[in-house]
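Hi U.,

Before I forget, here's the chain from the pilot set. I'm dumping it here mostly so it's searchable later in email.
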Amino acid sequence: MTKFIIVLFALVLVNCNTSRSVITDEYIFVQKDTLQTSKWQVVWEDHFDQSHIDTTKWAKIPPNKADWGNYMSDSPDCYSISNGKLHLKGIVNPDTIADSRPFLTGGIYSKGKFAFQYGKIEIRAKLESAKGAWPAIWLLAEQKKYGKYPRNGEIDIMEHLNFDNIVYQTVHSYYTLELKQKEHPLYYKTANINPDDFNTYGLEWYPDQLVFTVNGKIAHTYPKLEGADPTQWPFDQPFYILIDQQLGGSWVGDVEPNDLPVNMIIDWVKVYQ
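Structure:
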């Protein structure tokens, strides 16, 4: 009996030591500081292998007043899943009587369902092109530790404009937007992609740096600076995931209706810790 108790205690210790994260509120995964990055393991994922969006993981993004959110919609015309891939669509609004907006777009987020602090995220996606198309994969703060936007920061893992063969990978914060500190350190870079194929967009998030990747290769690194204004690094709190096919706005420009519909096709999403 004594030997059994010893073995059981040893198994409990092993299980505790191999845990990837501290989980709070049942859905927020905070990576342990002691985790070795050579031992990444998937802690949350979606391969879109159901016939519908998994509502335990995602919600449809509602319209909002931000430049990117003007046309967000829960219309089923903006969403479909086929062959294990999620299609988020930008379309000409088929019924401007019921909804006066000229365009509708699809987007999903994990707000209130999954958030994480530190670790790695990868998303395999194909981006169709159109004038005015602005698909994005990004992260926002779940709990708003430092107040209103932009004090909690924004991490743009991928943004694509129009017919470009590049994507933007960007960090926004009070430090970059209000204090205009955009070059120390450099707040964004671009990376080449093949827009006719699937590409994998990633972020490795550490307590002292953000490492952006495209197809497994490092494309941009944003470090935490010693001695900088504290608003330079609001990235010490849980963030949730947004994936959306946006249309129009001051950055991307006007939409060409003849180019629509346009699809952002998501193969899978994986988060590692």
